[in-house]
Specification:
The protein is of the alpha/beta class. Helix content is 46%, strand content 17%.
Length: 333
């Protein structure tokens, strides 16, 4: 299967992108990569490394975070991202796309140039987060749609449940609605309207409202939210994890000999905890609702995360995620 990768998207491009591609080619023998960007530079970095399974599409422009997404997609037609999107749309053998570039540009381009699944009002970003029980939870939406309506959140729930079944192998995903309390009457007007729709939806296993502090508890498989609240929750989870490890490090450094000796014994445990909470282990955020898998990797992604994102596209294709989403939509859609 062919997967197109934006070779010049992200803070660490193109070096980290190429390293991630090399790792993915070693890990997944059934994958071929199409790299977009300055061809000479990409070939230089790839020289002698699995070149037989890599194609190149030359692109002279780069879309940056300073560009206005809609204008950049329209004006920078020779950018690495637009070339990647067009290749995904036009080539049947290409099963998905990975980019660590501008979030707005990736989402806008995927919607406009690749296209939505029929019946989906708005695609949504859906990252995979680790839980304290060693499992995974999906958070949808985490920033693609900051102003959402209840019917959109119903579609997010259906797409998230489809992803959990098809890709994560969860037989009957527990779907919860992010709110400011677990009681049925909690939440704002959007939460109240969405709660009623989710409760009536027979195609999902809706378990009620949940609070942000329980996202990583392992009690849920899919957490549904509008893009604004979801993004705040996601950034809070990431920031808390980073802060905890900084505080631990500070405590060990300032705690004297006893603290340092304790660290020696706890080092394997702490390393395992850090790995378990590392979002990059799972790759990027899937942009669900477009007609082919698109993964938006973190802008600061290193090779490990790029490789994992390529693996996500592979898993989404094997799991036939698009068809699962179509089957889950109400027939009236």
């Amino acid at each position: 299967m062919k997967i197109v990768v934006d070779g010049f998207g992200g803070d660490n491009a193109p070096e980290a992108i190429v390293e991630g591609v090399v790792k993915a080619l070693k890990d997944y023998s059934d994958v071929e990569i199409v790299l977009t960007g300055h061809e000479d530079k990409l070939k230089e970095l790839m020289a002698g490394r699995e070149e037989g399974r890599v194609e190149y599409i030359d692109a002279s422009e780069i879309i940056t975070n300073d560009d206005v997404p809609t204008e950049a997609i329209r004006a920078k037609k020779d950018s690495s991202l637009v070339k990647a999107l067009d290749y995904l749309k036009q080539n049947e053998e290409c099963v998905g796309l990975v980019s660590a570039g501008s979030t707005g540009a990736v989402l806008t381009g995927a919607t406009v140039r690749v296209g939505r699944i029929r019946g989906i009002t708005r695609p949504a970003l859906c990252p995979i987060l680790p839980t304290i029980t060693g499992g995974k939870v999906l958070l949808i939406d985490c920033g693609a749609n900051v102003d959402s309506k209840a019917p959109m959140l119903l579609q997010f729930a259906i797409m998230g449940a489809s992803y959990a079944k098809a890709v994560l192998g969860v037989e009957n995903p527990r779907v919860a609605l992010l709110s400011n309390g677990t009681e049925d009457k909690k939440g704002n007007e959007l939460v109240h309207e969405t709660f009623a729709l989710l409760k009536e939806c027979e195609s999902i296993n809706f378990v009620g409202n949940m609070e942000a502090r329980e996202i990583l508890s392992g009690d849920y498989d899919v957490v549904v939210s509008d893009g604004f609240a979801g993004n705040v929750a996601l950034k809070s989870c990431e920031g808390t994890a980073v802060s905890v490890f900084k505080l631990l490090k500070k405590g060990i450094m300032n705690g004297g000999l006893r603290a340092k000796l304790g660290y020696i014994f706890l080092k394997p445990v702490l390393k395992g905890l850090k790995k378990n909470l590392d979002y990059s282990e799972s790759g990027g955020a899937a942009f669900l609702g477009v007609i082919k898998p698109v993964i938006k990797s973190h802008g600061s992604s290193e090779a490990k995360s790029i490789c994992a994102s390529i693996g996500q596209v592979r898993d989404m294709h094997i799991g036939n995620i698009v068809e699962h989403i179509k089957e889950g939509l109400p027939k009236s859609e």
